[in-house]
Amino acid sequence: xxxxxxxxxxxxVRLCLKTYLDSRGxxxxxxxxxxxxxxxxxxxxxxxxxxxxxxxVLTRVVNALDCGIEDILELADDS
Length: 79
Known about the structure:
Layout: E1 11-15, H1 17-24, H2 28-35, H3 39-46, H4 55-65, E2 73-77
Helix pairs in contact: 2-3
């Protein structure tokens, strides 16, 4: 194989949009309005309930928030 063990990494990408928005006093509704993304979609991202991330949604969110992708996504240990 190529030395990459997919099963034992113990880490996964996790959304931290809630932390970002809450620390800045930005509501989910305001973000939905600024991005043109429906509130239910923003709410799923906020609650970290998304299984497959949509590149268009992430792009619109970081553009609206004027932040980097690393501000709303993190690589976290499985727990």
